[in-house]
């Protein structure tokens, strides 16, 4: 009974989420326009300005920084004053804050101006998970944060959040599991309209540095904004987001290849769940299918199989021995008991010997896989002592014979064609030891 109660208690704990694998990550909500309690920069000085933006749904929590339409913008270049933040962090009076700020981003204080010159201001279009940092007691204090859509941030060359514009707080990627978060709305950050846990996104770096970002105008979603990296909006150009883009044929491509094709086509990559497939997983379907026309930034959801994180592999099968091979073919027959015996062939050897050894004993036929016969095969050519069967005339150690050669040891049957005028009997053939003339002996 005690054992049953113990097992039941363990099951209850697992189901209720108390197991070690059900750890939840506490995330502090940060709403648009709500000031930080411990900012790096005084928000009353107008370093950055947020906008009212309704969070958009996502298809796949983890999105890379070059995803078309991931970020928004405005044609008013006032959402983030990068020059003011640079002056503040390079002011000797703020050296301690500069040390704390640069340590979060892994740079030195001397590298701050150049680093800021490569950042680009954008507006969030999705409720976004980040690792935020307050400034407390002379140090940067990290905490998980959910930034509401519409907050202005600076992103680096790979599209990762780097700083919150209004307060200058440095940002890093969210390091927890987006499927197990517990969002706390407190300190004036009330739950905003349109908040949906399924629409939360976490940003991962793009595979390579970008030259420009493709944004969507939050005031007019039919207008796209192309913003060069490291600029604040004065060099923007616009494009029509309503222009249609055909979904490419992605069947059989790896997830990494499919993603690159979609991004280059101005389309976003969607997938099921919060964990992105591995780059080597193979695409088995897309929704919508190839050829469908979509506007800029719309999602194409990919179904994949295999991959290093999917259980199966995408490595093609190795070639089998039954297929064509390069070089000599491999025999599948059982090995011969006499590996040195030449195979049977209908063509003569390339270099037959000119004459057999004069005193060699009677040679045996080459062994084969079939049982030997008790008599020569009818119609087969005569066997010359010590040499392979050929169609050319051969000589013996005795006097030359102008007809088919017959040796003193080769048995001859009546079935073999013999054109010699020498009488042939059923007995063995011998030669006179002096003249070499063939003689017969009755048996």
Automatic annotation (TrEMBL):
Entries under PROSITE patterns matching the protein: PASTA, PROKAR_LIPOPROTEIN
The PASTA domain, residue ranges: 241-306
Descriptive protein name: DUF6777 domain-containing protein
Top-level lineage group: Bacteria
Composition bias, Low complexity: 303-335, 375-443
Biased composition (Pro residues): 336-374
Gene3D superfamilies: 3.30.10.20
Lineage of origin: Bacteria, Bacillati, Actinomycetota, Actinomycetes, Kitasatosporales
Family matches, as InterPro entries: DUF6777, PASTA_dom
């Amino acid at each position: 009974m005690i054992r049953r109660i113990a097992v039941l208690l363990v099951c209850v704990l697992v189901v209720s989420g108390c197991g070690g694998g059900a750890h939840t990550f506490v995330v502090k909500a940060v709403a648009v326009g709500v000031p930080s309690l411990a900012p790096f920069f005084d928000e009353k000085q107008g370093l950055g300005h947020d906008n009212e933006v309704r969070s958009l749904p996502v298809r796949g929590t983890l999105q890379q920084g070059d995803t078309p339409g991931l970020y928004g913008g405005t044609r008013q270049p006032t959402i983030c004053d990068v020059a003011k933040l640079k002056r503040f962090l390079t002011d000797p009076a703020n050296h301690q804050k500069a040390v704390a700020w640069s340590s979060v981003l892994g740079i030195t204080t001397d590298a701050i101006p150049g680093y800021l010159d490569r950042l680009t201001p954008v507006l969030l279009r999705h409720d976004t998970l980040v690792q935020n940092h307050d400034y407390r007691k002379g140090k940067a204090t990290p905490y998980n944060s959910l930034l509401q859509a519409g907050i202005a941030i600076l992103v680096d060359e790979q599209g990762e959040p780097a700083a919150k514009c209004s307060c200058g707080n440095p940002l890093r990627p969210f390091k927890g599991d987006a499927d197990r978060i517990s969002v706390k709305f407190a300190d004036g950050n009330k739950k905003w309209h349109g908040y949906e846990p399924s629409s939360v996104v976490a940003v991962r770096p793009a595979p390579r540095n970008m030259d420009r970002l493709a944004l969507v105008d939050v005031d007019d979603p039919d207008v796209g904004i192309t913003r060069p990296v490291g600029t604040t909006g004065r060099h923007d150009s616009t494009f029509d987001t309503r222009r249609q883009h055909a979904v490419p044929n992605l069947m059989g491509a790896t997830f990494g290849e499919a993603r690159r094709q979609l991004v280059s086509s101005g389309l976003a990559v969607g997938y099921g769940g919060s964990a992105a497939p591995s780059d080597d997983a193979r695409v088995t379907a897309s929704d919508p299918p190839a050829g469908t026309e979509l506007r800029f930034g719309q999602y194409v959801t990919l179904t994949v199989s295999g991959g290093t994180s999917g259980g199966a592999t995408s490595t093609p099968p190795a070639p089998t021995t039954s297929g064509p091979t390069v070089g000599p073919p491999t025999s599948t027959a059982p090995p011969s008991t006499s590996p040195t015996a030449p195979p049977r062939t209908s063509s003569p050897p390339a270099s037959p010997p000119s004459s057999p050894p004069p005193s060699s004993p009677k040679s045996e036929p080459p062994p084969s896989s079939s049982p030997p016969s008790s008599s020569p095969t009818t119609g087969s050519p005569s066997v010359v002592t010590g040499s392979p069967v050929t169609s050319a005339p051969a000589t013996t150690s005795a006097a030359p014979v102008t007809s088919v050669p017959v040796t003193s040891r080769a048995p001859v049957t009546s079935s073999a064609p013999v054109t010699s005028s020498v009488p042939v009997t059923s007995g063995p053939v011998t030669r006179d030891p002096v003249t070499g003339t063939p003689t017969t002996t009755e048996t």
